[in-house]
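This part of the workshop introduces the protein records we will be handling. Getting from the letters to the tokens is the skill we practise here. An example says more than a description, so a record of this kind follows:
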Amino acid sequence: MKRLALYLKPFIPRMSLGLSVKILGTIVELAIPWILSYIIDELIPIGEIKPVVLWGFLMILCSMMGWAGNITANRMASSVARDFTREVRHDLFTKISYLSERQVDSFSIPSLISRMTSDTYVLHQTVGMIQRLGVRAPILLFGGIIVTLTLDPVLTLIMVATLPVVGGLTFYVSRRGVRLFKAVQRGSDALLRVVRENAVGVRVIKALSKSEYERRRFKKVNDEQTERERHAERTMALINPIMTMLLNTGIVAVIVAGAYRVNNGTSEIGKIIAFMNLFTIVLNALMAINRMFNMLSRAVASSSRVLEVLDTPVELFEKEPKFSFLPENAPHIEFDNMTFRYERGTFAVRSLNFELKRGETLGIIGATGAGKSTVIRALMRYYDVSEGAIRIDGVDIKDYATVDLRKKFGVVFQNDTLFKDTIRENIRLGRDLSDEELLEAARRAQAIEFIEEQGGLDAPVAIKGANLSGGQKQRLLISRALAGDPEILVLDDSSSALDYKTDARLREEIRKHYAKATKIIVAQRVSSIMHAEKILVMENGNVIGMGTHDELMQTCALYREIGESQIGDRRGGTEGGKEA
């Protein structure tokens, strides 16, 4: 909470002004019952109308001042809560952007989305409520008690006797509420995960006629979350009826005691009426404090989740490089006994060793789950390796500033993303590139024809490229990777939706125009990598073959099996590859 309090520091002047207005308006409201008592007990017995009208006008003026002050203060409180939440969300989004994939996996995407949305919204509500009621309610509570003491100390003691019971109950329930609302927020993560899976996989669900199954799965998670919320709300709701019963009992006691005191002549009717109004004000103040405790219980749970992300140290970010010069004659890319395992202990890649000179091409092929994409993620330092090292130009990638490291790459990932924007912005992606450079990259990626058919660079792209075919999406993604003339070009199964003719033209364009770039191509087609200087054949995280196409057709049974099934025998496959 201290960390979040720092976000409020820039808003202290605005909050102070708003709270001052709120205090003034609240004090004015407390004067109204006192004025009413004075009119009834002092002015009406005189029998003159003029002072009654004058003091009545003063009551109306106090009411208007309280109304105007509260509206002004509430508007200022809302603006502070809005700006506070904007800053928290901005920093939260920035931190998430720099988390490593291991950290993102640890939190999970649905949980991060929930923390960015529902948790920050709870903080927004809490900051606004504290400003609106955090000053007003205590002033009404303690100010009301002080005013009642000036009217009738005996009756005040009856009212005050109920407050310790109410305070103790509120404290107990609020402490328990924090634990319950943490469970509610975790359940919200699970609910969001199911919704997200259904939204992303809606086509598969419909194709397999599993809509009813998914409805049952969602109903189960939704019902569990509903029960958590019901339990939490039921626990917090215990305060209201008990508090109301205690305070109403106190009011009855005040009325009875007041009747005896008026009958005995030790008190006056005006004071009793004013006392009842003040008791109502105190009651409402206590109810407001109760609502604040309910909201604070939610806020404590949400703030701990937000701070868990904000306080997570970024693993893979260095502001400055840790080297002053590049070694001479070093390989452009070197994997030195690189091993990577996930936190749960399962190996993804074991003892990977190879070197690539600048401009060479590496092809990687293997079955699903063999570790091909993991090699790419490790090279770009999305994950840190468990053993060994990866070097670029002779320098360990951990010694590069992350921004400098990533600038070396042009990459198309498997199942990569297109954004809801224009074709221009999807290719440019925030880089300082001219339209001519974008069109040239699209031309080399074989995307220029469909871009012109769509209406040029200003043509819209739907979310995830829903208005494009699979081949069009892949060519647009390849255009993005080629734009900016990358030093290292990574294509992770990026041509699977292209026909052989288009794929061959694409490879030819890359060979002609990106000869200086070191290329790493992950593919399922032998024809896409058979021209590479080195080909890795991977199975279950191990390299079972390494060499050229012809060498692997002779020495690697798995590669030969794949090659023969796709392009025929060894001799026919090589000729077929040249023709392609």
Summary: DSSP finds 22 helices and twelve strands in the chain. The domain at 2-186+232-310 is CATH 1.20.1560.10 (ABC transporter transmembrane region fold). The first strand starts at residue 333 and ends at 341.
